[in-house]
Amino acid sequence: MAARELIGLDIGSTAIKAVILAHESNPPRLLSLGQVATPQPGFLSDNDQDLENLAGAIKQLVSGMQSPTKEVAVSLPEARVFTRVIYDLPFLTDEELSQAIRYAAEEFVPMPMQDVNLNYQVLARSASKGPNSRTVVLVVATPKPILDKYLRVLNMADLRPVSVETEIVASSRSLVGANPFSPTTLIIQLGAMTTDYAVIHEGLILITRSISTGGIALTRAITQLFNFEISQAEEYKKVYGLLEDQLEGKLVQAIRPIVTVITSEAKKVIQAYEAQNKERPVKRVILTGGGASLPGLVIFFANSLGLEIQEGDPWFAIAKDPKLLNKLSAEASTYAVAAGLALWER
Question: Membrane-spanning regions, if any (predicted)?
Answer without folding.
Answer: none
